[in-house]
Amino acid sequence: MKDKRIRELNTLKIIAEKLNEATDVKEMLKDILCELLKLTELHSGWIFLINNQGEYELAAEYNLPKGLTWNKKKVMCEGDCWCIDRYHDGRLNKAANIINCKRIENAIENNWGETNGMTHHATVPLRAGNEKFGLLNMASPNKTHFTDEELALLESVAFQIGTAIKRIQLVEKDRKHALIEERNRLAQDLHDSVNQLLFSIMLTARGTKEITKENEVKEMLSYIQELSQEALTEMKGLIWQLRPQGLENGIGSALLNYATVLGLNVDSNIEGVCTLPCHIEEELWRIGQEALNNCKKHSGTNKVWLSLLRKNYTVQMIIEDKGIGFHYDEKNQLPTMGLRGMKERVRKIDGNFKLNSSNGEGTIITIFIPLQKGG
User: Fold this and answer.
1) What is the mean pLDDT of each run of 10 residues along the chain (375 residues)?
2) For residue 228, what are the domain limits?
3) Are 118 and 128 in contact (CB under 8 A)?
4) What does the CA dihedral 129, 135, 140, 142 come to, rounded to 10 degrees?
5) Do 161 and 234 sit in the same domain of this protein?
6) What is the pTM of this model?
7) Partners of 97 in beta bridges
8) Which of 145, 216, 237, 323 is most buried, judged by most C-beta within 10 A?
């Protein structure tokens, strides 16, 4: 008994060290799941991460029976189940026994493979304070009940996992802010040095051309002017990529300024977005930039409608053109890397992305992004 207790304490120490050192959530979850199964002497485990929109993903799994890994783990990655339902409706706030796992029942009913006698599992919410991140599930063959001691141990580790996830998220947020600050510094340097030099070259060439009488020299100076103007335009574009002018006055100002640079004629309705969180503002800028570029390149019109509204802890952005449009069916993949990149940016901040377009009817991109209360 004493030796077993020592092994348990050593394993808990290893788990705590891994959680403290981890910098990647999914890698951390895989390592911790393996160590936790050793500690509890259970057979299988899996972890769902669940975002603010209620979407879940199988973030880690260990030693699943064949019935749960059939067809690239389809049964673990699709559909609802009792533990996730309880998680969403607020009934699952602590470690609990789940009777007759629905996913295992589906595997048995559809003959997807052996389930090794597993029918039940323990499930524990991953949380830090009042913030929830997902579910930890543990199971063993022919085990239909988990003792209070087993559930207490799982809950203790789950709290540590939740705290580690929150720490990693905060570190990533700080890293993104540092990256934005560095981009802003570089943009300012380009604007203050290279941009000004190019402008000086262009003015010098123009002035010299006015005082020379040799046609060949005038032609060369005109060529220098043209090259300087092209380089200046490219530099302005690069600066906009790094740090949009006007962002300090809000995302609305930045998008309208960028549309002007592109030569678009924009009607707009912008309300309540002057004090958005930095990371939301940054993502909205990148998404809006891509959408406006698409309007310029592909719509066949320079008239665009921009709506940017903040209401009830939600930001909504709509960018619409009445151009040539294209055929799009929501059942199919988004047709370009740019559109897929926009959707991925929205997904990263737990938002919703919707595209409506048809031939001759223009294109509408609608984005909803949730905000935390007080954010």
Assistant:
1) 72 86 90 91 94 88 94 89 90 85 90 91 92 94 91 93 93 78 70 77 86 85 86 73 64 88 90 79 88 89 92 90 83 75 87 89 92 61
2) 193-243
3) no
4) 100
5) no
6) 0.59
7) 122
8) 323
